[in-house]
Amino acid sequence: MNGNTLRRAGWLPLTLAAMLALLLLLAPSVALAQDDGDVAPAAADGRINDNVLEFGVWWVEDYPPAGAGGSDLPATRPDALGLRDYLTSNCKTRILGICFVNWSTPQWTARFVYGNTNAWSTDWRRSANGGSENSYIDTIDLAYFAGHGSSSGIIFGVGSPTPVTVSKNDALGAWGDRDLDWIGLAACNVLDDPVSNLQGWGEAMNGVRLIMGFKTVMNDVAHGVEFGKAIRDGYTFTQAWFRAADALQSQNRVARVLAEQQAYFDDRPGQHTANTVVDWPKYYRTHTVGSEPARFVDAAALNYEMPVLKVQPLSLDESLRQADTLGAAFGVTLSIPISDNQALIEVASSLGGELEMDVENGLFLYTDTANLWKTEGELSVMAAAGAAMQAIDNDAAKRIADAFLQQHGLTREDAQFYEVAADTETTMNQSVTASGETVVTFDERITNYQVIYSRIFMYSPSVSAGAVTQPVEFSVMGPGSKFKIYVATEAPVTPSFADFVNQAVIGGMGGYRQLQTTPQAAAAGQLEMVSMLPETTIAKLFEHFEKYVALDQIPLSPEHLISREIVSTTPAYWEGPIGFGQTELIPVYALEVKNTLSDTVGGTYVVSSTTYIPVEPSLMAPLARISTTADLNAPVTPGATIIFEALDASKTLLELGLDPDPDNDPLNFVLGSGEVTYAWYLNEVSDETRLGTGRTLNYIADPAKDFQGKDGGFGSQRIILVVEDTGKGSEPKISQAVVTLQSVPPLFLPAVQR
Predict the structure, then answer these.
(1) Domain presence at residue 22
(2) Can you give the pLDDT at residue 69?
(3) What are the tens digits of pLDDT across the range 160-189?
(4) CA 25, CA 14: separation in Å to the nearest integer?
């Protein structure tokens, strides 16, 4: 438990004094800093040390074929640019354009910001393998990639030199020999389990202190936003990476951080000038983001109907009481500024960002920054002072979590205990035998426990008189449905069990959106119902339209994906993360999928994933697709008029000719309500970049003005279509489509020493 309790000043109206005192989580608005081009001198360990905190972001949303289609990743751009905006911000709290509170942590300089055709694999590849990483990622302190990945490496897209995959061999002995300290890989499966995989990335570390990634698949979400915010709030890089995964990823995701030295797990930006020891062993921490898969429900037995579960937002008084309850439980002050009886912001935060709460719904996320995901020697200040410690095992962790929830009034009747999961730290060592064989050994220990509860909605279907029916247990899935308490592996002995519990709890998340539905109505089957598509239609949507209809898109490498097979399908509900606007728990089919991929040596491996597709078309996001006669692989002629047309989102997929097999399970329905608006933008979505509205855009190309290239060369231009569903008030109601135009054929210029 964090002992640094902040004094609560009480709830105040939104006056100037209140604004000066309160810390809000408002997205910063910043301009990119410019690199001065100087070459830094060498540090004591032979690496450059320029005393400037620098980073770069690379993102790929456009994968072959160019433009719309293929395995594109729409969230990678806001992912990478969100990280950029937080790291370069000089202001934490900005209200009405006025900065009231600055960040207490250092401001970074963005040196490289490259996306799509400007994001090149050569920037990450060693020179012996045709790369120029010494002139790019190894001249900054933090390098961040958002795009496709696999255990074979990170994968670049349209416009990148071939080969597009940066493998372990491409980085062998190269990463960090100049300035690079930390790498973030928002990509699937890069840090997966095979011994050769983790050993290979360990061999790539030659001055890099941490490689942060995922063991499993990850959802296509703006991971960098939460990661950057946590860094600026003072979290270690490891804590920031794991917390971002907690906040945004669904169940069955596993994050992982690989460290050169055990102490480097606790790195913060200030370590960018520290000397780095390069040797074996290496260490990695593994964090389970979620837990229980969706429980099986027979859709046919329900006559393909599910209850409608409307969300009941918190009243002002309820929101304040929830903030008081959470603040008392976790020992911090959570302040919500109020103006005219309305919450000013969606998410309130404590002073150091340890505790966040969704103002409208009460969802919370708490991290004890002094103890959670920390090295063994820093687990307890009291222990360092000589206090006697009591070890905690799985059973004790469960008792502690239950007691903590009970004594602080945080228990939920719809939460059922599932399991105690362990986050771990593994020592990975390698040695050479007398015969010359390299042997890798592993030693794993538990860093903390997660006591995980599943959200279950109990429902009794209506039946005819005299019939007998069993209650149905619907799982609620998604990042907002996670409820877990973090418990330390040991805690100081205290006079009372209640005090011991408070010391042992070092984090938590949960809250759940409350429902309008009463348990009595659910038990009696007296609920509004929603019709469900049959499983065969859902399977067809998954195969051909997953990226348009899934709530959690699973980005898998198009280069390595061989096949996908749906293993199971079950009805469930989906609850979004903190700040996600939804008026009901979204009824979905949870699809467990077996993905077969190829590796770099001609073999195959299997990756499991879960995707969630709404059970009824009106609950889905609207269709956003662009039709154009322009040749997207040819250079654009300056002054030429290019016509872009949005497909009519008020028509059915069948009417639009998008149904690949109209004779079987015809897709004779509209995605969303069918009431939509269309808006067009250049390069990014903002009022300043809007090009027009309506289904058709007549665009006059001006490469000299609008195209931005890499290293002063020619580049590309993005035409963005935003389709908004105005017929419903709940997410998901906005979709985007992007077309990338080339000014000239892609140029791959020689690397420039900066």
Answers:
(1) no
(2) 67
(3) 888 899 999 999 999 999 999 999 999 999
(4) 16
* pLDDT in the model for residue 312: 93
CA-angle at 142, arms to 139 and 144, nearest 5°: 110
Phi, psi of 383 (to 5 degrees): -65, -40
Span between the terminal Cα atoms of the chain, in Å: 46
Per DSSP, the three-state class of 500 is helix
In a domain, 26, yes or no: no
Buried residues in 261-295 as b, exposed as e (16+ CB within 10 A): bbbbbbbebebbbeebebeebbbbbbbbbbbbbbb
pLDDT tens figures, 231-276: 999 999 999 999 999 999 998 899 999 999 999 999 999 999 999 9
Q: Are strands 715-725 and 342-343 parallel, antiparallel or unpaired?
A: unpaired
Q: What is the pLDDT, as a whole number, of residue 377? A: 53
- Closest by CA to 223, choosing from 479, 484, 455, is 479
Residues 668-687: what's their mean pLDDT?
A: 93
> What is residue 516's DSSP assignment?
S
* Residue-level pLDDT at 32: 30
Mean pLDDT over 482-494 rounds to: 94
Three-state SS for 327? helix
Main-chain phi, psi angles of 190, to 5 degrees = -65, -40
* 544 alpha carbon, distance to own chain's centre: 24
For residue 747, what pLDDT is reported?
38
Q: Indicate whether 277 and 386 sit together in one domain.
A: no
Q: Tell me, what DSSP letter sits at residue 82?
A: H
Rounded (10°) CA dihedral 85, 86, 92, 93: 50
Q: Which residues contact 181 (CB under 8 A, 6 or more apart)?
A: 141, 142, 207, 208, 209, 210, 267, 271, 272, 276
Of 319, 297, 589, 590, the C-alpha closest to 457 is 297
DSSP 431-476: EE-TTS-EEEEEEEEEEEEEEEEEEEEEE-----TT---PPEEEEE
Q: Is residue 750 part of a domain?
A: no
Supply the CATH number for residue 182's domain.
3.40.50
Write out the residue range of the structural domain in which residue 450 sits: 300-523
d(CA 254, CA 217): 8
Least confident of 570-584, 633-647, 676-690: 633-647
What are the E-state strand segments in 40-102?
Answer: 54-59, 93-95, 98-101
Residue 151: what pLDDT? 87
506 and 376 within one domain: yes
Local structure of 29: helix, strand or coil:
coil
Sign (positive/negative) of CA torsion 338, 341, 344, 350? positive
**Quick one: 173 and 277 in the same domain?**
yes
Helix (H, G, I), strand (E, B) or coil at 128: helix
For residue 86, what are the contacts with CB-CB under 8 A and spacing of at least 6? Answer: 28, 224, 225, 228, 229, 231, 232
Distance CA 183, CA 143 (A): 5
Q: What percent of the chain has pLDDT over 90?
A: 61
* Residue ending a domain, choose from 523, 550, 579: 523
Rounded CA separation 365/380 (Å): 21
Looking at the structure, tell me whether residues 316 and 451 fall in a common domain.
yes
640 and 720 co-located in one domain:
yes
Q: Are 550 and 577 part of one and the same domain?
A: yes
For 399-422, what is the mean pLDDT? 96
Number of domains in the chain: 4
Domain-embedded: residue 220: yes
Q: Which of 558, 591, 619 is the last residue of a domain?
A: 619
Helix (H, G, I), strand (E, B) or coil at 87: helix
Residue 550's pLDDT is 93
Co-location of 328 and 253 in the same domain: no
Distances (CA, A) of 352 to 134, 170, 182, 326: 36, 39, 23, 15
Question: How far is it, in rounded angstroms, from Cα 234 to Cα 372?
Answer: 13
Both 111 and 145 in one domain: the answer is yes
Is the separation of the CB atoms in 406 and 413 below 8 Å? no
